[in-house]
Write a structure and sequence with these properties.
The protein is an alpha/beta fold and about 500 residues long. It is built from 21 helices and ten strands. The radius of gyration is 25 Å and the shape is globular.
């Protein structure tokens, strides 16, 4: 999951200076509106790896905003007074009143995370996370707006940050023994954090993952999310009350738009120039298909089911990769389910119903050409799902996939990606090829006009649903030969791992 965060996002000093005045004005404006009209509190939680800038971000927000309307709390080990009460007592005590913003460091996620890193007790962790989700659900049901930020660094960046702080007399105190121990346990720390973030990122209180390498990017990103979230909630309440927002209550559109710094996505890190020569392609494809056939026969004998999900930009080559997989198998052992708009019958059920219906029997393989991820892609962007529906779908999908993998199903999710220019070239080829023209629709052209929006939604989808039990495999699809071989070989590797278990 966290590999989608560390993309090297940066903001120049000049760009930062240019953006800050409008951002500060927006934060102060929303604070004033919240005090005057808001009958709800805003609870902002900061968590993440040591050295990722949590405290620095909170300090700067306190500098930019009206401190009279802020509550800021940082927690350490419980005092004697706090230890004599239930663990959540000190957090409930400090919650902000309606119309105020509360910012919390090392709050109710800190102890469960650190304890799990040290003892690895999943049962205890799950119980504590259930308690957290229930508490947050109660707060949201009472009207609270909860924003949760996970500030992240990769291992090398964290080690470098520690070295720089340790060498600075003014910053050296920040490098604690506990921080160094956590760095030594980085992999365990991140694995526990991934479990926590996925289990507690709900539609009502989702996590926002923030790259902490560049302080200017980090600050603009967090402050922009805070400003816009309060703005949206206040506008929604005013609309419900039939109140038209006053001109002085509304920022200009360019000030409200998401910062351009967020335009960088996981897909910008892909090397779409990778290719396979025809000779190597034929050799690897033949070897991969023979290997796949053997592995699937072994999986069928063991009753191991396989479920493949193919998503990607239009014309990215999903069909070609699917055919190279299924042609290596007995037709009676596999099934391809093409997913289009739901039927009238399917609309009368929960959106996951039609996918539950097609789960493979023991030992069989099923391929979904498009899938349940339509809820957070096309349904989200085209308005077929409400804001609340697609936001809560991430948690619903993670739960659904966890049920599949806990049952022993081998679940592999492919995102095939191509460039904007390559998609246009393939569209033109389809348009001018009689036996391919049927593949090209008006909807394809309409979606193409929203390329950036779909790419951003796909990045968020992968970020929020790539788990250890069901990771996404991103396939560079400009060269069709490379994409097909990578898809076949990925399925082989997953089956080998399942058979070894």
């Amino acid at each position: 999951m966290f590999h989608t965060v560390t993309l090297g996002r940066k903001v120049s000093k000049e760009d930062f200076k240019q953006r800050v005045p409008a951002l500060r004005q927006g934060l102060l404006l929303q604070q004033a509106r919240l005090k005057q009209h808001g009958d709800f509190p805003v609870i902002v939680l900061f968590a993440g790896v040591d050295g990722a800038g949590k405290a620095q971000t909170v300090n700067l927000l306190n500098e930019w905003m009206d401190p009279r309307l802020l509550v800021t709390r940082a927690y350490s080990a419980p005092s004697d007074e706090e230890s004599e009460r239930p663990p959540f007592w000190r957090f409930w005590r400090d919650l902000p009143r309606n119309g105020r913003i509360g910012m919390f460091l090392s709050a109710w996620y800190s102890a469960p995370l650190l304890d799990h890193v040290r003892d690895g007790d999943d049962t205890v962790l799950n119980r504590r996370l259930d308690e957290i989700v229930e508490m947050e659900r109660m707060l949201v049901a009472d009207g609270a707006l909860i924003l949760k930020f996970w500030m992240h660094l990769d291992r090398d960046a964290q080690a470098s940050r520690f070295e720089r702080m340790a060498a600075d007399p003014l910053q050296a105190w920040r490098v604690t023994e506990e921080g160094r121990r956590n760095l030594a346990l980085y992999d365990s720390f991140v694995a526990s954090a991934e479990t926590i973030v996925h289990r507690t990122s709900t539609g009502e209180a989702p996590w926002h993952l923030v790259e902490g390498t560049d302080s200017r990017y980090r600050t603009l990103h967090v402050a922009g999310i805070l400003r816009d979230a309060v703005e949206r909630r206040l506008n929604h309440l005013e609309a419900l009350n039939g109140d038209a927002p006053r001109a002085t209550d509304t920022l200009q559109p360019d000030e409200l738009s998401a910062p351009e710094i967020e335009s960088r996505t996981l897909f910008d890190t892909l090397d779409l120039s990778v290719t396979l020569e025809q000779k190597e392609y034929k050799q690897r494809l033949k070897a991969g298909q023979e290997r796949l056939g053997r592995l699937h026969r072994a999986a069928r004998a063991r009753g191991i089911s396989t479920l493949l999900v193919f998503e990607g930009m239009d014309a990215a080559g999903k069909g070609g990769s699917i055919r190279r997989i299924t042609s290596a198998l007995e037709a009676r052992d596999c099934q391809v389910i093409p997913i289009a708009a739901p039927t009238d019958e399917e609309k009368k059920h929960h959106y996951l119903w039609r996918f539950w219906r097609h789960l493979p029997r023991a030992g069989r393989l099923t391929v979904f050409d498009r899938s349940w991820y339509g809820r957070v892609l096309v349904e989200r962007l085209e308005g077929f799902a409400t804001d609340a529906e697609w936001r809560r779908a991430y948690a619903e999908i993670r739960s659904f996939e966890r049920e599949l993998t806990d049952h022993g199903i081998v679940l592999i999710k492919f995102w095939l990606h191509i460039s904007d220019e390559e998609q246009l070239a393939r569209f033109e080829e389809r348009k001018n090829t009689p036996w391919k023209a049927w593949k090209l629709t008006e909807e394809d052209w309409r979606n193409r006009a929203r390329w950036a929006e779909y790419e951003r939604a796909a990045h968020e989808m992968i970020e929020r649903t790539s788990t250890r039990n069901a990771p996404w495999v991103v396939v560079e699809g400009v060269d069709k030969r490379y994409a097909r071989v990578k898809s076949v070989e990925t399925v082989c590797a997953a089956l080998e791992e399942a058979l070894a278990r």
